[in-house]
Amino acid sequence: MEINSSANSDLDLSFVSVPSTVAVPDSMNGWAHQFQEAMMKYTCAIREVKTKLEVLNDELSVRNQRNPIEMIKSRVKKPMSIIEKLQRRGLPVSLQSMMENLDDVAGVRVICSFVDDIYAVADMLTRQDDVGVVMVKDYIRHPKDNGYRSYHMIIEVPVFFSEQKQYMRVEVQIRTIAMDFWASLDHELKYKKEIPNAEEISRELRECADIIAGTDEKMLAIRRRIEGQGTRMDRPGEWR
C-alpha cells in the first residue's frame, strides 16, 4: 500500500475571491467607507445563497441523475443605480435608506432547465431553516403585460462576520434558459434610446414571450413522457 506523505495531497487548491473596491460617486464621499463595507456584506450574502444553491444542485445531480440548475449568476447593484432608484422613489440618498428600502442590492439569478425545476429549487431553498422569505412574485403564472416571466423572491440569510451575525436581504430570480434569453433582449430594448420601430419590436417580443412559454411547457411534457417510460435522461448538455 502506498501512502502519500502530504496531509493535504487530496485537497484541491482554491482561492478566496475578495470583493474589489467599489468606486463611490462624489455624492457619497461622506459615507464612502461605510458604503464599501455594506457592499462587502451584500457580496458575502450572495456567496451564502450561491453556496446553498450549489449544494442543492450537487445533491439532486446524484439523487436524480439530473442537474436542475444550469447556471447561477450574481451581481451587486452599482452605486449610481442605487442612487437613481432611491431618488426615483423619493427616498433619502443615504446608507440607512439603502439598507432599509432596497431589497435588490444583492441579486442572484438561477437559470433552470425546466419550469418545474424553478418551483422545486425555490421550495428547497426556502425550506431551509435559516432562510427567511420576505416576498414572492410569481411572474410565470402571472406574467407582466410585456410578456416577462420569472420567479422572484426576496429572502433573508444570516451572514457571520468577525464580531456579529447580520441578516442580509438578497433578491433571487429563477427562470428557464428561454426566459433568460428573452429577458436579456427585452432589457436591451428598454435601456437603449432611440431604437427605430420600438413599438413594433415590443409587440414582436410579446409574441415571442408567448411562444417561449409554450415551448417551455412542451419541453417539460416531453421530459415527463420520457421519464414515465422509465428512461433516464442524461444531464442537460452532457457529452458522450
What do you see in this structure?
The protein has 240 residues and is an alpha+beta fold. Helices cover 45% and strands 18% of the residues. It has helices at 32-64, 79-88, 95-101, 115-126, 177-191, 198-228; strands at residues 69-76, 106-112, 132-138, 151-160, 165-176. The chain has a 5-stranded mixed beta sheet. The longest helix is centred in the first third of the chain and has 33 residues, at 32-64. It is flat. The model is unreliable at 1-18 (pLDDT under 50).
Task: Please tag this protein with its features.
6 helices; alpha+beta; 18% strand; 240 residues; 45% helix; disordered N terminus; single chain; 5-stranded mixed sheet
Succession of helices and strands? HEHHEHEEEHH
The beta-strand count equals: 5
Low-confidence stretches: 1-18
The number of helical elements comes to 6
Spatial shape: flat
Average pLDDT confidence is 84
Proportion in helices: 40-55%
Biggest sheet: strands, sense, closure?
5 strands, mixed
> How big a fraction of the residues is strand?
15-25%
Distance between the termini: 34 Å
Structural class: alpha+beta
Q: Please compute the radius of gyration using only Cα atoms.
A: 21 Å
> Strand order of the main beta sheet, please?
1-2-5-4-3
